[in-house]
Design goal:
Layout lengths: L4 H26 L3 E3 L11 E4 L4 E4 L4 E2 L6 E5 L4 E4 L4 E3 L5 E5 L4 E4 L4 E3 L2 E4 L2 E4 L4 E2 L4 E3 L17 E3 L4 E2 L4 E2 L4 E2 L4 E2 L4 E2 L7 E4 L4 E5 L9
Parallel strand pairs: 1-3, 2-5, 3-6, 4-7, 5-8, 6-9, 7-10, 8-11, 9-12, 10-13, 11-14, 12-15, 13-16, 14-17, 15-18, 16-19, 17-20, 19-21
Antiparallel strand pairs: 21-22
Length: 220
């Protein structure tokens, strides 16, 4: 009697998951600041972890990602921290998700948020609230990255994306911006100033286009 193909497939998937759990344990052993909840996806075994001494990375309960080699890339400097809270989804099926915290900086990705093929790079602080959507190709910076000249040094200011906001694809968010609760930022916008709660903004630079109602009951 030939084995059931479905049984073989399920068995292979289970073996891959077991192997990935072993790889995760090795990552945790080799990176003292790395904490991965037991219920987080075993697919994080394929992520890239670059943690400097004193860095901290916490991946919370039920956090998921795809099984793609280096699909999620964590680069965390000395004394910096990145926290990915319960139920978040770092979606990498289109392109990688890149979270970079410079020495002493802080990044928080809130509960049930979805980050798709985007980049967050912090020199002070970037916080993403609960049930936030961030689209592919989007970049969030909390600093200028470089000085303009000797008279204009680099400036860094925290960026906050509040609960239930939706930042669409290929958006750039610059230092000092707060994207308000329940707001929507249109595709390919450049956000240089804060976005009021429950508003729609779009354009280069982003300008007000209208109001947004209750987004709290929407599925991601």
């Amino acid at each position: 009697m030939n084995p059931n193909p479905n049984f073989i497939t399920v068995l292979l998937l289970k073996l891959i998951q077991v192997w990935d759990r072993v790889r995760l344990l090795r990552h945790v052993r080799n990176c003292p600041g790395l904490q991965i909840d037991a219920s987080a996806s075993s697919n994080f075994a394929t992520a890239k972890f670059d943690l400097a001494p004193g860095a901290k990375l916490v991946i919370g309960p039920g956090v998921v990602t795809e099984r793609i080699r280096e699909g999620v890339r964590f680069e965390i400097g000395a004394g910096a921290s990145v926290v990915v809270e319960e139920g978040a989804w770092l979606r990498t099926d289109i392109a990688p998700v890149f979270l970079r915290a410079a020495p002493g900086a802080r990044i928080v990705v809130g509960r049930e948020s979805q980050l798709s093929a985007c980049m967050l790079t912090a020199k002070t602080e970037i916080t993403v609230g609960r049930n936030v959507l961030i689209g592919m190709g989007t970049r969030i910076f909390d600093s200028d990255q470089h000085a303009v000249d000797v008279a204009h040094p680099e400036v860094s200011l925290p960026v906050h994306v509040e609960d239930h906001a939706w930042i669409a694809a290929d958006v750039t968010v610059l230092r000092g911006v707060t994207v308000g609760t329940g707001s929507v930022v249109g595709t390919r916008s450049l956000v240089r100033s804060s976005v009021e709660p429950h508003t729609v903004v779009s354009g280069v630079p982003a300008k007000l286009y209208g109001k947004v109602g209750d987004r709290t009951g929407l599925d991601r």
